[in-house]
Design brief:
Blueprint: E1 15-16, E2 19-20, H1 42-53, H2 64-83, H3 89-100, H4 124-134, H5 141-149
Antiparallel strand pairs: 1-2
GO biological process, one term: regulation of actin filament polymerization
Subcellular location: Cytoplasm, Cytoskeleton
Keywords: Actin-binding, Cytoplasm, Cytoskeleton
Length: 150
């Protein structure tokens, strides 16, 4: 059974390319609002559901939060692959930090991993907002995954 995101109520949530900017447990300022430290956020869900969801080839998208969950599951998988050859904590930390600092492709760019899952940005500002959500140096969810996995 595929696990879906519990963040289905989308009223008042800003979106960039159909991707919701859901609250994150973070002290870093970014485009996503800050969540309570006691409440589960989308990154917690991605980490919790990773083992189960990674085995499914098909995923029935029920909300835009599910799209974000798919992207985060993919990112966790990429992070784990980067850690495969690391023999020490220092090597692993360096590999993950470097991954978090890489350029983030947005929908419509050839290197974006999920063509068709997210709509194309309607403006350069929307594309920039999505990049900010996923870039580590701007306080996005990629940095939150790195911090929680180390």
């Amino acid at each position: 059974m595929v696990y879906h995101s519990s963040f289905v109520d989308e009223e008042g949530i800003t979106k960039a390319c159909g991707c919701p900017l859901l609250p994150l447990k973070s002290h870093i300022k970014g485009p996503a609002p800050v969540s309570d430290q006691d409440r589960t956020d989308i990154v917690d869900e991605a980490i919790t559901f990773f083992r189960a969801n990674v085995f499914f080839r098909n995923f029935d998208v029920k909300s835009s939060a599910d799209k974000l969950l798919i992207y985060l599951t993919f990112y966790i998988n990429v992070a784990l692959k980067r850690l495969e050859g690391c023999r020490t904590l220092a090597e692993g930390t360096k590999a993950i930090i470097n991954l978090g600092l890489e350029k983030v492709p947005v929908p419509g760019e050839p290197s974006f991993p999920f063509p068709g899952l997210f709509p194309l940005p309607q403006s350069p500002q929307e594309a920039e907002l999505l990049k900010e959500l996923f870039e580590a140096d701007k306080g996005g969810s990629k940095w939150e995954i790195i911090k929680r996995c180390l």
